[in-house]
Design goal:
By secondary structure, the chain is an alpha/beta fold. It has 3 domains: 1-45, 434 Repressor (Amino-terminal Domain) (Orthogonal Bundle), CATH 1.10.260; 59-161 and 298-321, Rossmann fold (3-Layer(aba) Sandwich); 164-293, Response regulator (Rossmann fold), CATH 3.40.50.2300. It contains 13 helices and 12 strands.
Length: 333
C-alpha cells in the first residue's frame, strides 16, 4: 500500500504539504493540491485507508500529545495525567511516546503524520483547544484517540473529564450559602470547553437563587495568573460591592488573591476566592485556596484505559466522568 511518503516523493513536495492538502489547509495553492490528489489517485493512496492500516498493526505504543506545554505551576497537572497514562500502559505492556506541540507545530506536521511516522496504536491528547488544527483532524480521523478535558465523541474518539458544570455549581452554591450575593466569575479562554461549562454552572446557580446576572461580573483571565492579576488590579477598586470571586482555574485565583493583597483587600474577611483544579501550590498559598480538586492521575489512567478498549474494538462508552471533590480551605468565609 502507498504511504504519504510515496505521494510526497512522486509529487515533489514535502510530507507536510501532502498532509495539509488532504486536510484542506488554505495555504496550499490549487495547482499543488491538484497534483497531490492526482498522484494519490494514481498510487491508490487514501488517508483513511492509511489510518485504518495504522490501527490494525500490532503496535504496542500509545502516543501522548500535550498541546500548549509551558513553564509554570499548572503543569503538575500534566505530570499527574502522564503518570496515570503510564501506569495503565505498563499494566498492559504498552509503551508511551510523549509529544509536546503548539499551534505552529500543528500547522507543519499533521496528526496523521505523527501516527504514521511512529506506528502508534492511538493517542491520548491533553491541552488541545477547539481552534487547534489537531482538534479538527481528530474529530474526523479514524485513528483511535481519547481527549482529556475536551469533548469529542465518535466511533474512534472519546474523552475523559470531570463534570465541570456540576463542579462549578457546587463551588458557587457554597458561596451563595454563605451569604454572598455579588459573585464574579473569572473565565479562561473561549476555545477551552471547560470555560463554557463552568460559566454555565455559575450562571445556573445565580438564576436559581434569584441573584442578578451582570455581564461585567464575567471577567476574562485566560487561565493566566499574571493576566488575572493585572485585570483584578483594575476591576476590584471599581467594584467594592463584590464579596466573592469564583475562578475557572487556581492560577487565576492566585492572581486574584495577589491583586487583592496589593490593594489592601482582606481575604477572606473582605473577599472570598474560590479556584478550580487543586494544583499543588493551592494548599500552600497564603491563605490556602478553596478549590475544586480534579484527579488528573485518574483522568490519565481512564483515558489510557478507554483508548485501549477502542483500539481493541471493545464497545465502550466514549465519555468518562471522573469524580471531583470540593475542598474548603482558608480563602473563603
Amino acid at each position: 500500500m502507498a504511504t504519504i511518503r510515496d505521494v510526497a516523493k512522486k509529487a515533489g513536495v514535502s510530507i507536510a504539504t501532502v498532509s495539509r492538502a488532504f486536510n484542506n489547509y488554505k495555504d496550499i495553492n490549487e495547482e499543488t493540491r491538484k497534483r497531490i490528489f492526482e498522484v494519490a489517485e494514481e498510487l491508490k493512496y487514501s488517508p483513511n485507508v492509511a489510518a485504518r492500516t495504522l490501527v490494525t498493526k500490532e503496535s504496542r505504543i500509545f502516543g501522548y500529545i500535550m498541546s500548549g506545554l509551558e513553564k509554570g505551576a499548572r503543569h503538575n497537572m500534566v505530570q499527574e495525567s502522564l503518570v496515570g497514562i503510564y501506569e495503565f500502559a505498563r499494566s498492559i505492556d504498552y509503551e508511551i511516546l510523549m509529544f509536546a506541540v503548539d499551534s505552529a507545530i500543528q500547522q507543519n506536521k499533521s496528526y496523521l503524520q505523527f501516527a504514521e511516522e511512529h506506528s502508534l496504536a492511538g493517542f491520548v491528547i491533553q491541552g488541545i483547544k477547539t481552534d487547534d488544527a489537531y482538534y479538527k483532524e481528530v474529530v474526523k480521523s479514524r485513528i483511535p484517540c481519547v481527549l482529556i478535558d475536551q469533548p469529542a465523541d465518535s466511533k474512534h474518539v472519546g474523552y475523559v473529564s470531570i463534570d465541570n458544570y456540576e463542579a462549578a455549581r457546587e463551588a458557587v452554591q457554597y458561596l451563595v450559602d454563605r451569604g454572598h450575593k455579588n459573585i464574579v466569575y473569572v473565565t479562561g479562554t473561549d476555545v477551552a470547553s471547560v470555560s463554557h461549562s463552568r460559566c454555565k454552572g455559575y450562571l445556573s446557580v445565580l438564576r436559581e437563587n434569584g441573584l442578578i446576572i451582570r455581564d461585567d461580573y464575567i471577567v476574562r483571565g485566560n487561565f493566566s495568573q499574571e493576566e488575572t492579576y493585572r485585570v483584578m488590579l483594575q476591576f476590584l477598586p471599581k467594584h467594592p460591592e463584590v464579596t466573592a470571586i469564583f475562578c475557572a482555574s487556581d492560577l487565576m485565583a492566585i492572581g486574584t488573591i495577589l491583586a487583592a493583597k496589593d490593594l489592601g483587600i482582606g481575604i477572606p474577611s473582605r473577599l472570598s476566592v474560590v479556584g478550580f483544579d487543586d494544583i499543588l501550590i493551592s494548599s500552600y498559598t497564603t491563605p490556602s485556596l478553596t478549590t475544586v480538586h480534579q484527579d488528573f492521575y485518574q483522568m490519565g489512567y481512564e483515558a489510557a484505559k478507554m483508548l485501549y478498549d477502542i483500539v481493541q474494538g471493545v464497545d465502550v462508552h466514549h465519555i468518562k466522568k471522573v469524580p471531583y471533590k470540593f475542598i474548603v480551605r482558608e480563602s473563603t468565609s
